[in-house]
Design a protein that fits this description.
Number of domains: 1
Number of helices: 1
CATH architecture: 3-Layer(bab) Sandwich
CATH superfamily: minor pseudopilin epsh domain
Oligomer: single chain
CATH topology: minor pseudopilin epsh fold
Helix content: 25-40%
Length: about 160
């Protein structure tokens, strides 16, 4: 009976494996900040779209039910939520972590409870500019025209 030695020389050496791991670590360290910033921008975009849709919902509910509908932004407590006051229900919506209100100019008389009120004909009681920001300082705005009630999204503060 013949016993043969198995000499398997296939595979990678420790040096080659460490070289590949170090190369992957360098690539990840270069790309990580850009990936995090991109994710933060996507989260801000999502919150911006949600706020825009909620304002349109409040306006449409006022038109549909022919009753006042409003959205309020309470100053007391954390500054990361808003309240929808619809004719048939009240709903609290929270902004995602890391997103906060940066601008709340609703033109209302109550400084501590700014709100946007839509009349039964869908026209707001005044114009508004609502801005939200992420941790990096990126800001997006939702603007409500005082006369027409048009709701639009904006990347820049209106008037600038």
């Amino acid at each position: 009976m013949k016993i043969s030695k198995v000499n398997n020389t296939r595979g990678f050496t420790l040096i080659e494996t460490l070289g590949v791991i170090i190369l992957i670590a360098i690539i990840i360290s270069i790309l990580y900040p850009n990936v995090v910033k991109t994710i933060d921008i996507f989260v801000l975009d999502g919150a911006h779209n949600k706020l825009y849709q909620d304002l349109r919902l409040v306006k449409m509910q006022a038109l549909k039910t022919e009753q006042l509908s409003r959205i309020s932004f309470p100053y007391f407590g954390p500054q990361n939520y808003y309240v929808l006051h619809l004719p048939n229900r009240t709903k609290i919506n929270y902004l995602p972590d890391g997103i906060n209100f940066s601008t709340l100019n609703t033109g209302g008389s109550d400084f501590y409870n700014p709100e946007v009120v839509f009349a039964p004909d869908g026209v707001p009681w005044g114009g508004a500019t609502i801005g939200i920001s992420n941790k990096q300082g990126d800001t997006k705005y939702v603007v409500i025209a005082a006369v027409s009630g048009r709701i639009r999204k904006s990347e820049v503060l209106p008037g600038f």
